[in-house]
Design brief:
By secondary structure, the chain is α+β, with helices and mostly antiparallel strands. It folds into 2 domains: 3-64 and 135-177, D-Amino Acid Oxidase, Chain A, domain 2 (2-Layer Sandwich); 81-128, no CATH class. Helix content is 21%, strand content 30%. Strands 2-3-1-5-6-7-4 form a 7-stranded mixed β-sheet. A hairpin with a 3-residue loop joins strand 5 (151-154) and strand 6 (158-163). The longest helix is centred in the middle third of the chain and has 15 residues, at 94-108. Its cofactor is FAD. GO terms for molecular function: D-amino-acid oxidase activity; FAD binding. One of its GO terms (cellular component) is cytoplasm. Keywords: FAD, Flavoprotein, Oxidoreductase.
Length: 180
């Protein structure tokens, strides 16, 4: 399936303080919104912190080899009699118009049973449902050989995410809001 629980680490260095409105590294625990939904959440002792990291927390993370898992999900769906219809839908009439077009397409192919629509429009969703809260965020990732032992994030803009069973790891960095 391409999924596995692994040990995660979220670390924060000096750059989190100052005038950017971020919390200080020494105050991270009460401010992490996700602390109550992960397993084995704990503060890491200073002896376990990488250089440049002032404070960190550990937890159990779920890592997924996304391409492999999506193939598994699609195969399971098709094996159980599901039908896949790929289509480019018009956006000029918003979400309601796009869903009407999708329903019409399904009827024309005489498909029966429950209907599930997957919106994979990404930033194009802003055309479907006008939402001023949606904005691009630029980032960079690279897939490297070798499967990392842990999932790690540092200062919210650098991360290491292993792809279980693939022998590869995603490395990411940068976070430029409004630059997509």
């Amino acid at each position: 399936m391409g999924c596995r629980d692994i040990q995660g680490m979220d670390g924060y260095g000096e750059e989190r303080g100052g005038d950017r409105g971020w919390i200080r590294a020494s105050e991270i625990n009460p401010h992490l919104w996700w602390r109550s939904i992960v397993e084995n959440f704990n503060s890491l002792p200073a002896t376990q912190l990488p250089k440049g990291i002032q404070a960190a927390v550990g937890f159990t993370a779920i890592c997924i080899d996304v391409p492999r898992h999506l193939k598994y999900l699609l195969s399971s769906f098709l094996t159980r009699g599901g039908k896949l219809v790929k289509a480019r839908l018009p956006t000029d009439k918003g979400l309601v118009g796009a869903l009407r077009s999708a329903a019409s397409l399904v009827r024309s192919q005489e498909l029966h049973g429950g209907l599930i629509f997957v919106n994979a429009s990404g930033l194009g969703a802003k055309e479907l449902v006008p939402d001023d809260a949606m904005f691009p965020v630029r980032g960079q990732t690279v897939l490297v050989k070798g499967e990392a032992k842990y999932a790690k994030t540092m200062n919210e803009n650098r991360y290491v995410i292993p792809r279980p069973g693939s022998g590869t790891t995603i490395l990411g960095g940068t976070r430029e809001v409004g630059n997509g």
